[in-house]
Phenylacetic acid degradation protein paaN
Amino acid sequence: MMTITTAQASTCSPAELASRHRRLLADAVRAVAARTAFSAFTGREPSGPQGDEATALFSAQLETPLDLPGHIGVPTLQTDEVSPWTRLPLGVSYPRAEAPALIEHARQAQAPWSARTIDERAGICIEMIERMFAANVVLGLAAMHTTGQGRGMSRSGSGTNALDRGLEAVAAAWQVLSRVPTAASWEQTFGAELVALEKTYRIVPMGPALVVACASFPAWNVYPAVFANLMAGNPVIVKPHPSSVLQMALAVEIMRETLTDAGCDPDAVQLAVDSAAEPITSILATHPKVRIVDFTGSARYGAWVEEHARQARVYSETSGLNAVVLDSFTDTDAALRAVAGAISLFSAQMCTAPQNIYVPESGVVTPEGVLSADELEQGLIDAAAAIAESPRRAAAVLGAIQSERTIDEIADLTATLRARAHVLSEPRSWAAPEFPRARTSTPLIARVSLDDEDLFAHECFGPVVFLIRVPDARTALQRAAADAAAHGAITAFLYSTDEPLIDSAEEAFAAAGASLTINVTGAMPINFSAAFSDFHVSGLNPAGTATLTDDSFVTGRFRVVQSRRPLRPSHN
Amino acid sequence: MMTITTAQASTCSPAELASRHRRLLADAVRAVAARTAFSAFTGREPSGPQGDEATALFSAQLETPLDLPGHIGVPTLQTDEVSPWTRLPLGVSYPRAEAPALIEHARQAQAPWSARTIDERAGICIEMIERMFAANVVLGLAAMHTTGQGRGMSRSGSGTNALDRGLEAVAAAWQVLSRVPTAASWEQTFGAELVALEKTYRIVPMGPALVVACASFPAWNVYPAVFANLMAGNPVIVKPHPSSVLQMALAVEIMRETLTDAGCDPDAVQLAVDSAAEPITSILATHPKVRIVDFTGSARYGAWVEEHARQARVYSETSGLNAVVLDSFTDTDAALRAVAGAISLFSAQMCTAPQNIYVPESGVVTPEGVLSADELEQGLIDAAAAIAESPRRAAAVLGAIQSERTIDEIADLTATLRARAHVLSEPRSWAAPEFPRARTSTPLIARVSLDDEDLFAHECFGPVVFLIRVPDARTALQRAAADAAAHGAITAFLYSTDEPLIDSAEEAFAAAGASLTINVTGAMPINFSAAFSDFHVSGLNPAGTATLTDDSFVTGRFRVVQSRRPLRPSHN
């Protein structure tokens, strides 16, 4: 077994863990209630392995079976897992088990896990988060070589930010669960008789929960789902994408180790690994005993899961048509850099990346006068090219492309667009300094018209940008909001100095369920979503139902059952 | 139009209503958070018509079109509505409209309604509740002559208790909604740059909501659903059962009148009336624009709605197999009276009524020694007979049978049981003093064995009781809990002095999702469910998913969408 968390691993009772992490929990609960800025990791360095030590530990795991003590299953080589950076197979074997056995082990773990108090469960979950943070550099390398993310993002977006979203889910769940009173004394007069009852209220978990991860950014959705489930008392089966297992397997290893050290059954968190050739997700998702499914992945498969997993409550995040509406700029260069950054970041393999940028025929008002539609297009292309032209910067910002299929789809789309539309920037691969064989692509940027909705009115995964010519910004707004409502969107972006237009945009995107970012430029990527503060996925459009993190993300995972009896004297 | 609420009807702005009802809201919020005893109506008499005046107003509505000012639809005689007490058609005409028109009117009402603040919506909802309370006696007569309830129950269970459950939903929703912050200032450093954003969070309603009522106890489920929806900003279409319209139509009249008086669009609450011959529920429930369905009714149709209303979030309450486990008594007569009362109350046409009573072969321990199984059976039969033997008491407790079909089904079942089991008490009709033609029945009580699960393992609606012989109480407990989990149950009842058995029962019924009442005797009907305190329907078994009232009853009815932009100086 890798020893990636030696610094913190030690036996500790659930009550001790509750006590140890009480203050962090309280801070997180305050933040999640007020939606203010908060991170558990600001100004902290991971206490676990870093630098060469981390690299050595990561390399030692390659070509090696991953050991998950006590986990059922037969070690099986994961042939679908190939680094997007090196194009070499990772060669890791994971324990593989059949769905019924995993579910049975989950069911066995449920009663003792749900018998823990809410504070104890929170303490154990936060201990898991702290241990994952300690191992952040090693987990980041695993994220990097499965998702294709750059080194920085693999430690922040897939590391601390994802862990913060996990902690947010712990806090949100704690808040919801702790509001349910454990007992009440009740008195009411019936006729002349005073009836006095004592009532107890019990949190009952729904049952085994399945968490299906996507290939390109698994941690960000897996951690909130796992922790919301564990807080509610549900045992969890984490099912990574077959091409992107290692980071989640190491995360599960740390979670199980934490459970074991706390004297709990480690099967409260299990790993389900399958292959592209022999998938297991549908079997797990539709099993009668699986009661919760968190699904992140394609819209098509997500719809299948929602259609067929009728025995479960399904929380989903699939895909969306994120739009940029351009009306007027206060700082043209800053705005163009911001938009170019968002379409470049991790090569738009993020659910918050914009795809459809609306370009008004009438141009955009700037302090220097009107920028024509053509000038605006050229400005965006130049700003995107500036990011891609330095291989070092490209490696950090664009990262690699997770799946060969994305490269193929972009090639096919480019051919289609050449025949039908104006391709303004052809996708091209570029050589990353550290990994010359990396699977890479600059964005495909094409000009289309509103009539080309067969092209732009569905998600094209990866670095694909449509510059959609529209008469004016209001037309853009209407169209973008209508597409968000009909086809799904998580984010929307507006640049405008026109307050009535901003008001209209807030109305329209609120109704369509897309979170709106207005006039943001500068160092923060405009599609960055802040844990504790930004609600992510509204549930109002087809992009999904799993809102990070509102009450509804928690309330479907447990139920309350009561018992009542005459008030006993000892309780008076 | 009937003037059933003259005492309170007056023009009043939403802000004034919010202010007027602020204190009651605060009291209700406190009660719902602590689950303590509370009622808005203790010690109060309705200010509206009572006695002869109420009777005259009710009678004046019979054989007359109900006027709902501004409501779409063509007045149509409701031929399915026949009083279970007089067996005479009510002869009321209601406006009938097609589903698309109702939904379009709801959609028109949504934006202005959801633009009201949460406090204003609460003020208007509580004003509706107060006006319905003022009209409690007239609404009670309407409940009585549609459901068959006795006069007392029609004013309490279908009156104040149902209104309290409605107020509970207002308070629960207010609590959930008001926790979502409306805005936050957010700062985070990216590199050397401090990024400061202002964020706003907006409650967005899901869309038109359909509330489908049952025939025998509509108010109790309709009020919570209507008010949870209105609080979340959703316009509501109330769809009564075709044989039980009048009470809900009058309630909708009062709600619309309140909306109009507050300067709001009355179409935020509409009435959908259909007939048994031309039902409209399936069309409404599966319409793409209907986003919430609250369904109370049969398990079979409820399953159809859940299967087909895929565009909506469905909250359901269907049926269940409520059980009584008998182990030991401290007061034999009191226990027998309590159980007999529960099987007699409104002739078991309540979702909380027990059907399956487990009788241990070994008998039941009492202070006077062991009561044999045969003695126990006889005791129950005698206790039930004592209730039915006085026509006046029978009219008050048993009430009438809502549907002729229930009478037919009991007759069929009696024939089956005569051939297969031991019928201990044959159902017989009895003459109510005030209404000699009333449709009535004493309970059918039969002894069966555990092998007769084809008889007892599904709900037999109405006054049907199986005395199931079991070896001992623990066997009964296991079987009752297993049936609750598999077939659905809302309540369970236990009489025992054995604390380890009580602990086991609490565990088993909590896991099965049935609310447990232990050793309760006396003036309170043991299947009484207290607003603000008792959670009703757990969502853990097939009896339904609509829990009165927990957070999950509210959180599925709205979503939160955010907008963010650079912090403006004026906001510093």
About this structure: Chain B touches chain A through 66 residues (CB under 8 Å).
